[in-house]
Amino acid sequence: MKKSIYLAFVILSFAIFACNKSKSDVILPAPTINTDRIKTHTINGYQTSYTYDNQGRLVETFDSNSGTRKYIYETGKVISKFYDTLNVLTSDREYLLSANGKMIKETSGLNPGLNYSYTYDNQNNLLESNYINGAYSSSKKYFFSKGNADSIRNYDKNGQLVSTVINTFDLSKLNTISEEFMGLLFMPVLRKNILTKQEFIYANGTPTKVFTFEYEFDNKGRVIKMDTYSSGNFMSSDIITYK
Question: Do β-strands 46-52 and 233-242 pair in parallel, antiparallel, or remain unpaired?
Answer without folding.
Answer: unpaired
